[in-house]
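Design request, tokens follow.
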């Protein structure tokens, strides 16, 4: 299980896979809504 964090570098997007070290799994907080029949979502993060 993992998710991707995107970062812009030199005018292009770089994809980083975020996952737990022990591969047990993890939980994410997020919000979503349906827009034009498709799900639109945001994962909530913090620094």
């Amino acid at each position: 299980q993992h998710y991707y964090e995107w970062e812009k570098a030199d005018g292009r997007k770089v994809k980083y896979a975020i996952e737990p070290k022990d591969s047990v799994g993890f939980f994410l907080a997020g919000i979503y809504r349906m827009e034009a029949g498709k799900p639109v979502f945001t994962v909530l993060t913090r620094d």
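Comment from the thread starter after seeing the answer: thanks! The chain is about 0% helix and 60% strand.
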